[in-house]
Amino acid sequence: NFEFECEVKTAKSANAGIFIHTAYQEKGWPSVGYECQVNATQKDWRKTGSIYSFKDVKTPGHVDDKWFTYNIKVEGKKITVTIDGKVTNEYTEPADHKEKTKRLSKGTIAIQGHDPGSLIHFRKLRIRKLD
User: Fold this and answer.
1) Counts for the chain of helices (H) and strands (E), in that order
2) Sign of dihedral through CA atoms 105, 5, 131, 74?
3) Per-residue pLDDT at 100
4) Class of the 2-129 domain?
5) Which tens digits make up the pLDDT trace of 18-27?
6) Sign of the CA dihedral running 54, 55, 57, 60
7) What is the pLDDT of residues 29-84, one digit of tens each?
8) In the prediction, which pLDDT does 20 show?
9) Residue-range domain boundaries for the chain
10) Which end of the chain has fewer surrounding CB within 10 Å, N or C?
């Protein structure tokens, strides 16, 4: 159980992600864990706040070129995503969840820049353990 918070600013057409419960790997996208999407205007329809491919959001809740606060809280099997103080997504991992590499159990956090053309700034990254 933890809470992760940071401030983010995206440029036009930028795409990024915050991976949770992931593991280090040398190359490629993280194959373990969940991705919380960062995307206001890039062509992918999954926007900021999406728990990528599990529970997606179509409206980002922020605009490019302005700092916003991104909060991810994991309690048990529940992920809550909050953008600028507003809950934008909640997902509870089902008991019969079949994807072995996408599980809320343990792991690290990874910040992803989707492609070389995506300009995203992150600052004030904070994490705290929840009891």
Assistant:
1) 0, 8
2) negative
3) 83
4) mainly beta
5) 999 999 999 9
6) negative
7) 889 999 999 999 999 999 999 999 999 999 999 999 999 999 999 999 999 999 99
8) 98
9) 2-129
10) C
Residue 38 near residue 10 (C-beta atoms within 8 A): yes
pLDDT score for 79: 98
Residue written as token pair 């960062």: 38
Q: Nearest CA to 47 among 23, 21, 20, 81?
A: 81
User: Is the distance from CB of 60 to CB of 84 less than 8 angstroms?
Assistant: no
Nearest to 50 by CA among 17, 93, 8, 28: 17
67 Cα distance to chain centroid: 16
Q: Which residues contact 24 (CB under 8 A, 6 or more apart)?
A: 108, 110
Which pLDDT score is estimated for 99? 86
Q: CB within 8 A of 34, min separation 6: which ones? A: 19, 20, 21, 51, 52, 54, 79, 102, 104
pLDDT of 131 reads 86
Instruction: Give the SS3 label for residue 110.
Output: strand
